[in-house]
Design goal:
The protein contains one helix and six strands; from the N terminus they run ββββββα. By secondary structure, the protein is an alpha+beta fold.
Length: 92
């Protein structure tokens, strides 16, 4: 699986969420609404989720193993860092 496109929408408001990202895999499958979040231990991603009837948030789409999660996170955070270096506006 190759991530063939990453689109970063930077968030300018104060808060822990820094960007919302869409990724395309193998030029065939897109996952929208991946969040880039600044946590106590650094930047990380949160997969798209929805609130369940019990009030808990559950991922709608997510990697099945930690190696895939790490790969996706590394690609997204690299793209986010590049987007930060660009003038204001969205990377598209």
């Amino acid at each position: 699986m190759q991530i063939t496109d990453v689109r970063v929408r930077k968030i300018t408001k104060e808060g822990k969420m820094k960007a919302v990202v869409s990724i395309t895999m193998d030029d065939e499958f897109v996952v929208h609404d991946i969040k880039v979040i600044e946590g106590e231990k650094g930047m990380f991603i949160a997969m798209p989720s929805k609130k369940a009837a019990d009030g808990e948030h559950r991922d709608i789409a997510h990697p099945i193993n930690s190696a895939t999660r790490e790969h996706i996170q590394n690609v997204i955070l690299e793209s986010y860092e590049k987007a930060l270096a660009e003038p204001d506006g969205e990377e598209e």
